[in-house]
Every structure is written in structure tokens, then in C-alpha cells.
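Page 42, continued from yesterday. The earlier attempt failed because a stray header line got pasted into the input along with the sequence. Redoing it now with the clean sequence only.
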Amino acid sequence: MPQNPLDLGCLRPFDVVARHRNLSRAAVALGMTQPALSYRIKQMEELLGVQLFRRRHRGLELTAAGEMLQTAVRHGLERVDEAVQGIRRRARTPTVRLATDFAFAAFRLMPRVADFRRAHPGIDVHIVATHSLAPGIENDVDLAVLFGDREDFTGQFGGGMTLLVPERATAVCTPGFRQRYGPFDRVEDLLDVPLVHLESDSGERWFTWESWFAQAGVTRHPTANSLSFNTYTLTMQAVLAEQGVALGWYGLVDDLLASGAVVQACDATLGSARGYWLLRQDGPLPPEADLVAEWLTDA
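This time it went through. C-alpha cells are written below.
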């Protein structure tokens, strides 16, 4: 036979009594009368079939059962209070949800998002990083910056699209690597050094070394060993560790090039009709999302 569940409405009064160890002070804190609070505690004890408090001359003392219940109640109420505070904070502070891939988030947004926050302290930007074009992602975000062809997003985002960063890729390595293995006067010279590959799990959505070499008119195959990664962050970490040469996409590696952390391995930059697109959710957007879109366009 199922037992009667404990009334959740009595848990906070119980917690306040357990912390104050005094019915009078707890009643004042809760805005209740002492008899009403005493009755609540008595109901709990009757329902549980155990004593939760021992009445002492100067107040109350938790029993072993009371200590066990108070530990669980305190943990649960803290979680609830945190959730309520988060909900209220979001209600006060407009939040714009932006989906993008890990590379754009790490190399393009993170170095610049602090500037937006300083300019618009009343707007929260929630960046949702993803590896792939997940179906239905347009229903969960206000804006997206995703890489591909225009046709990749037709019908998915109905609020329009703007090409932010066209695909332009060059070969990059550290100055030390180029000094040790270079110079690379011709594109085909890169075939004889380790190449760092960025893999894709959804077809050829960006330049691969094979397609980049083919567009450059190079038909010979690489002769050196290579490394492959499924994230651009790891790809560039391998380059910075002087493990080889990788393709560097303008819009992602600009800061690394400007700082001198990486350099062009050879004088060749190739482009395509692909790129990073700013995509808008169908329907009217809140004014805060328009500000984020404007910032992305200018960044």
C-alpha cells in the first residue's frame, strides 16, 4: 500500500526551524504564528512516524532522523533557490542565444565578446557551440554563425542570411617550423613536410588539403606523415606545437597571424563560395538580437 507523500509545502518551514532551533524565532522569520508552525512540524512527525526535534529548555535539538531530513532538505532547497534566482535574473536581463561552431567561438568570438559586453552590459549572450548542423537548431537560438554554402541553410533559417566571412585559406605554421623546414617557395614544397588535417563528419564542407592543393594546381601526393583532428582548436594547437603545417582560414587565424604566433608557410591564399554565414531565426527578433547581429557584422 503506497505511503502518503510528505507535503512539500512543509519543507521550508522545517528547514527554518532546523536552522534557528527555536520555534519563536523561526515563526517570525517565516511570518507565521508559533502555534501554526508547531502544528506543521507535528504533522510532519506524525506522517513520518518519527520525532524530528527534541524539546529542550532553551530551544530545540534535531534528532538523528531530523538531521538526516534537514541535510536532504537544505540541499534540495539550495538547488531550487538557485534555479529561481537564475529565472529571475534572465527575466531582468535580455538573453540572445547564438549558435556557432567551436572554431568560430574560440578564435573569433572569445577575443571580441568582452568588447560587446562592455558596450552592452544589459545584454547576455549565450553562445551555443556545436560540431555540426543539427536539425532544429534554428528553433533554439535567435542567431547562428555557421560555415558552409548558401544552399546548406536554405529552408532552415527563414529570417535571412548574410555572408560574414568568405572562405579564404592559406597554409600556416610557426616561424620556427618555417625556419627549420622551409623556405616553401612553391606550394608543392609543402608536400614534403608533415601536414595537419582538419576532418569533417559531414562531407567536404570546407577546404581539405587535397582540395586546396587541387585548386592550386598541385597533383602530386604528400610524402611526409600527417596528423588529423576533428576540431580546429586541436588542429591549431598542433601547429603551435610545431607538429606541422595546417590550413589557416582568414576570420579565424587573423589574431594568430597578427601576433606572429603563426606565419604564412608560402605565398598562396585560395578561396571558395563557402564561408561563415550570419543566419537569423524566422520571425521578428528582439532588439537585443539585432544589436548582436550588428556587432557580428562589424567585428
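Notes: Residues 95-165+277-298 form a domain with the D-Maltodextrin-Binding Protein; domain 2 fold (CATH 3.40.190.10).
Reminder to self: strip header lines before submitting.
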